[in-house]
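Section: Multi-chain targets

For targets with more than one molecule, the full set of components is provided together so that the structure can be written out for the assembly as a whole rather than chain by chain. Components appear in the order listed by the source. The example entry contains two components.
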Amino acid sequence: MKTESKFLTGLAIRIIPCLDVESGRVVKGIRFKELKDAGDPVELARYYNNQGADELIFLDVGASYKGKEIMIEVVKNVSKEVFIPLTVGGGLRSVEDMRKVLNAGADKVAICTSAIENPNLISKGARTFGSQCIVLSIDAKRHENTWHAYTHGGRYDSGLNVLKWAKKGEELGAGEILLNSIDKDGTKQGYDLDLTKKISEGVGIPVIASGGAGTLDQIVDAVVFGKADAVLLASLLHYGEYTINNIKKYLQEKGVGVRW
Amino acid sequence: MIGIIDYGAGNLLSVKKALDYLGADSRVVHAKNDLAEIDRIILPGVGAFRSAIEKLKSVRMYCAINEWLLANRSFLGICLGMQVLFESSEESKGVHGLGIFKGKVMRFKDYKVPQIGWNQVKIVRGSKIMDGIEDKSFFYFLHGYYVKSHNDDLVVGATEYGLDYDSVIEKENICAVQFHPEKSGTVGLKLLKNWIEIC
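Its structure, encoded as tokens over all components, is:
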């Protein structure tokens, strides 16, 4: 495995805005004067697409029954006019749940707690829709020299070692790992580079780094030191501190390949 | 009317939505009998080579598509829909592809598989399908296997992922792309528009 490959090939590092949605509204604070309704996921998806987002991830953080139905409508509407890959996660517990969001227009599904509770969901999903559809989302928290995977939005320790779980996920057919650091999430102290590097070098599938981005240099670090294939961004974008365009320009100056 | 072939390989809806957005009439085609009013075919697809070929056979589309291609009728293959045009794939040994073009589909080595993300297409020669699209434009790729055809005349665009491989081919009315134009933003829509209007 040559993990420096992304610097040798034309494959761009992906910048992925993440929208946390509850009952059809984006819930993390979003401050854009240009938007009429910054809480509307469809309008925000359009906005980030125009800025040059490489993909979009929608996480249903409420994951209530009603929320799920509304999310399906959101995905239907976004996929009518936004032609980049869309991932949907949050509360997907069965192949049928996955099928519903994929039929609505999602390209991939992200599963976290349900995959830990039922690892066969990864293999069933991969067999039914292909590995490229299945994103294994891991909420990782440091325990001395290692990390544990957490469930239920970071509330419970599953006791699983994150590297072992990531490898197991790959073996079961996951096509990508979405790696979220609970320790760094929302801190703006930067991504957990040790964690990102360890997992990215430990698996043969792409790793999306998530949690902690506060500066442009931290994004570069996630790619150069952490060997991330993609970076997830939420607050940094939502508060309008940086645009995707700013971020890409900076990454390019630092020698990281991006898409224009 | 454009027919989008359904052979259980996913992402049909994305293709349909992109065509709807462009205002092109299209219909999902499940079996040979549905082809009557169709004058252009899109063969989309993500999934495995073997299951794609088996599914095409089970809905009696394998021969229909073969005849379509031999008659040089308008065709666009996407991703796996490009790979099945060739003779065989390392993904599914012993399975015969449509074999319209000579060449084998091979697995990437040394790099993360599948390749997921935006990569560039270098224009190798002028074509209808890439008309007006800038050299080295980025498209969205999602695949573990690649095509290296035996016929350089086919190749319109090439992409590098550890090695150079064929990412766009065009021969008269038959076009195919390894990436997903329906997920490649504005430039992807432009390619689909080219195919609808001038290919």
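Chain B has a mean pLDDT of 93.
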